[in-house]
Amino acid sequence: LLPTRARLGLMRRTDGGLNAMAGDDFQYSLGPPEKGFSLFLAERTKKIHFIRHAEGYHNVATKSSGNNDCLLRDGKPANQHPLWDARLTKTGIAQAQALKQHLASRPSGGRSFTAFDLVVVSPLTRTCETAYHIFGEGRQPGKPAFLDDGLAPEGTIERARGDRVPAPRILVREECRERWGQYVCDGRRDICEIMAEFPSFDFSEVPYDEDRFYTENGREPDEHCCARGLAFLQWLNRRPEKCIAVVTHSSFLRHIFQQFGGNLHKDDMDSLQRLAGNCELRSIVMCSHGNRDGHEIPPMTAAAPRSTVRVNSVAHSLDKLGVDAEVVDSEDSRKSLLGLTAAGGLATAGQQWSQ
């Protein structure tokens, strides 16, 4: 059951902002559009918990300068810039550790904490660092969950009972990396270097050691990034896991979410589509309508076939500084790939939590 509007039970932070809802319960209200809610087969739904990386040194640099010029290579090779594949700051590490504590006390799935079947991570260093500080060591690649000796978080009733909770598999996928090109922070080091820092992460599905996607003189086209985001949702839809965390990037998330939510209540649409803060958790329920389940997922390439998604120029809206602008797409485009409609394909499964 996916609401087009959910009245969310939210906790108020000391600074006046809104934290995540205390539980996973939905409350439904009748109202426009149509009858105000949607019905889907439970087997076609899954929860996806998107997490933007915590604060990186490139975020500090752009905030200080007020623009993105500090992220340009300035005539030198991009991988020689100090912000190439930028790392987390001390504040960013603290943000990730705070989110770890939040998840340890966030009820979900009949437990007093939130556990994940799978964690999917962008290969850039800042997302790997964020995932590590939130989830710790991943389950050894190839090790079945029933052989993992992980325990529930400390202080939970499940831990007191000695309940075993396997560590999640942490799978690195190139498809959920940031929109690439031009800005040095959005390139990555060789995988052999990154793997050495995160030996419990599964890098087996990353196709190349070197970064073959980053371009020094231009950004990945908006249409390409939109299509890549929808193909990534299609891949998630085929996964057997029902509760998945995705540690990714703000512009990539905007390119996904701006394609959905057209029939949601305005408050929910704004919550879904707005720019994510550092280490923000944004939970959604994804439902496949089933009309593309058997379709081949397009491989990730630097120059994909022309997307079915039609957008106007959204470079300012969907990039680093997040200046708002209008995104225009057609009804047919919103139904492309997964067959997800703006009304029911993605629904907020709680409100955001950000540090």
Question: How would you describe the overall organization of this protein?
Answer:
This protein has 355 residues and is of the alpha/beta class. 23% of the residues lie in helices and 12% in strands. The chain is built from 9 helices and 10 strands. It has a 6-stranded mixed beta sheet. Strands 1-4 form a two-stranded antiparallel ribbon. The radius of gyration is 20 Å and the shape is globular. The two termini are 30 Å apart. The relative contact order is 0.18. Mean pLDDT is 77; it is low at 1-32, 304-345 and 347-355.
Report mean pLDDT, rounded to a whole number. Answer: 77
In percent terms, what proportion of residues is strand?
A: 5-15%
Helical residue percent?
Answer: 10-25%
Figure out the total of helices. Answer: 9
In whole angstroms, the N-to-C terminal distance is 30 Å
Strand order of the largest sheet: 7-6-8-5-9-10
| Radius of gyration from the alpha-carbon trace, in angstroms | 20 Å
Largest sheet: 6 strands, mixed
Which word captures the global form? globular
| Alpha-beta classification | alpha/beta
Sketch the topology as an H/E string, one letter per element.
EEEEEHHEHHEHHEHHEHE
In brief, what are we looking at here?
This protein is α/β, with parallel strands linked by helices. Helix content is 23%, strand content 12%. Strands 7-6-8-5-9-10 form a six-stranded mixed sheet.
